[in-house]
């Protein structure tokens, strides 16, 4: 896979990981040094994209196709896509469900909701979840997951998505971080997240869109690949019990910048404590969710494992309170890297 990625035009090498390379597994000290370099990158201001700047001709057509795929992932490449030969994604979500649109209306253009505006400049990077240096292409392919049709880097749909990401990053500072990227920082909360409080908050602030069972609202043509009007937060068609969003602090930071509908990082509608409690309810172990059989292999370096990635298997032989504290806090660093 690596050799194939390296020969693809536009392979992203914005962040210098030398003397290491994509695919390398790093010992703790080397990983910590690279993570420190990554965190110390110069910061550039947020860049608001504009669809009006997309060029005419074939290059622009490819960028627009990438936009359409991110907006209509379920119809284009989802597990129920009308064209069975294109079912490269493992679920019926649209990429824009998580990588939300900002004022421009473009996927991945909303501050602090996992925006894609600076994605090209954020890779390669050391991924503590796998313990290896990964490329932008590898990250994007991983988001497609194990679809019925294996995703290939040379697929026109995948290349269109990469074209859009490269266009988003034009005129940015190569390798630099960006204000508004990633997730919204939150102040520390002295108490543990409370799923009981979170259930009440969910009922009043989230249930109308995401459903009583957090299963989302399907569009009328769901069976034909239409996807969701509002995406599920539970069940088998969303992140599993090893996904990044399964970490309570991470989900809380995402929620605060994006929910309820109409919220933004500049105008949040939830307090940090409310967001944390809702995340605790949604990610409680009693909530139905896909089970990842390989989750014990994730975050292999214990020294780099974030507190919020809490699974019972990592607390064997310890009192139940140790697992509960790791999962719900109080958190030593609510803004910890995942």
From TrEMBL:
PROSITE patterns: CYTC (PS51007). SUPFAM superfamilies: Cytochrome c (SSF46626). Keywords: Heme, Iron, Metal-binding. Coiled coil: none annotated. Residues 61-169, 193-286 form the Cytochrome c domain. It holds the Pfam family Cytochrom_C. InterPro entries: Cyt_c-like_dom, Cyt_c-like_dom_sf, Cytochrome_c-type_DH. This is Cytochrome c. The lineage of its organism: Bacteria, Pseudomonadati, Pseudomonadota, Betaproteobacteria, Burkholderiales.
